[in-house]
Amino acid sequence: MRPFASVAPMRRWAAVLGLALCPALALAVVDGPGDDRRGYERPDYQTRSLALPTRVGQATDLVGRTRQVPLGLPPLTIPKDNPVSTQRVALGRKLFFDRRLSLNGTQSCAMCHIPEQGFTNNELATAVGIEGRSVGRNSPTLYNVAYAQRLFHDGREESLEQQAWQPILHPDEMANPSIGFFLRKLQALPDYDGLFESAFAGRGPDLETVPQALASYQRTLISGNSRFDRWYFGQAANALTAAEIRGLALFTGRANCSACHRIEEDHALFTDHQLHNTGTGLVRARKAESEATRVLVAPGVYMEVPAAVIRSLGASANPDPGHYRVTGNPKDRGKFLTPSLRNAALTAPYMHDGSLPNLAEVVAFYDRVGEPNPLQDPLVRPLGLSPQERQDLVDFLGSLTGEYQDLVLDAFAAPIGDVGRSQRASADPTEVHR
Ligand code: HEC
Ligand code: HEC
Q1: Which of 217, 218, 161, 229 is nearest to 396 (CA)?
Q2: Closest ligand by atom to 355 CA
Q3: Residue 155 CA: which ligand is closest?
Q4: Residue 23 pLDDT more than 60?
Q5: Distance between CA atoms of residues 11 and 9, nearest Å
Q6: For 13-22, what is each residue's pLDDT tens digit?
Q7: Mutation test of ligand 1: which of 135, 182, 351 has the most ligand atoms closer than 8 Å to its C-beta?
Q8: Ligand 1 centroid from CA 274, angstroms
Q9: Average pLDDT in the 91-95 region?
Q10: Alpha carbon 234 to chain centroid, angstroms
Q11: Which of 8, 159, 225, 387 sits a CA distance of 20 to 30 A from 297?
Q12: Mean of the pLDDT values across residues 293-306?
């Protein structure tokens, strides 16, 4: 055990240095359901990840979920050219968890959209891709993504069938250099033999079938029948607490959250599918500016560095242009897609940049809205809520957690495509590369 005794203090220093030099990361891990890793070197350290108590895999009837959706959700529209079938869903699920889909065989979709962390990542404000490259935005949850009319925080994509090539090819995510390269690599994996052909009437992996399979799996990640649904749509009078009912009244009344996070007569997706400037982009930029000024220069020695110096070093985070990147219209700067709030309690941290660590901070953000921002949506304005009212809203958001456990257990049962001994020769990405 001697080697560990000397490694532990080094790890402690690495943690201290990491927190001091990377204030954005420090902010992201201090609060919320993810891990505050301070003290992780101690033997009594306990993780706070939202993992299920026991990690057992149990497959569920995924296709059935798309036929009969749970209470609170509208009927599902499935594209005619990509009907949901058992084979397509199973294949998409296999692809989703397969790390060999990335250039160096290390990163799967599920490593940023982590099933036991709300199909997002509770521990990172912004995603980290292949070889530790930073992606710059928060991984959105994939629960109920079947209902999305636009995808990505800036709304640049419209269908799951088109979306999947972006992470597969993005140099900071899965980093495959081309579609051709990727398809060749997939064709060389013996455990995919015949799977595409049986799911797609004889067609192998190609430009269309790969994202169609992935879309089919993601479409089944439907979660509803929350306590809110049982109260609001199911007339179960005891499903909500008094505080949650007060929170709902604020949500649809004085706080007017439902102007954007919509509740319809017979269902609720908690989104208007539109893009708005709520001023969130500025939160991170301001925090980075004020906090990056304290820099650790030697063990235990901090130095105050003027924000201007930090900026000149390129360390300050510029606000994300948002929907402007899609339209080129300056009025669309800082506009982001309204996310659904279903399962919000499972999907911290929040906003396109993960800048708000928990729901209490989200509500506090809407309550004060202090940043001067000429492009801000007029529906977002200071609310003047009492502490009790803020807590009621947080409680209400907690009632939007639907049934999701069987989807997580199903994910645990999914095959993790890894470089197995029998497949090593053909599956080794460097082999295919040559
Ligand atoms: C490196 C982390 C990472 C990996 C790997 C990754 N994603 Fe994502 N995903 C993200 C981030 C970050 C976003 C938001 C990006 C943006 O808005 O520009 C996103 C957005 C999405 C969205 C849009 C969701 C919405 O509601 O707008 C879908 C769908 C999605 N990813 C599916 C996938 C699939 C399928 C794969 C594997 C082929 C994958 N992702 C791999 C991080 C990742
Ligand atoms: C003008 C439309 C609008 C109004 C009004 C509004 N929101 Fe939002 N909400 C948004 C948009 C847009 C985002 C995404 C912002 C981003 O990604 O930076 C968002 C994000 C959120 C998130 C984070 C979700 C996630 O997964 O990251 C929560 C929680 C939330 N809003 C709750 C509320 C509450 C509570 C209210 C009322 C006090 C409210 N919203 C009022 C448009 C609105």
Answers
A1: 229
A2: 2
A3: 1
A4: no
A5: 5
A6: 444 444 344 3
A7: 135
A8: 19
A9: 97
A10: 29
A11: 8
A12: 70
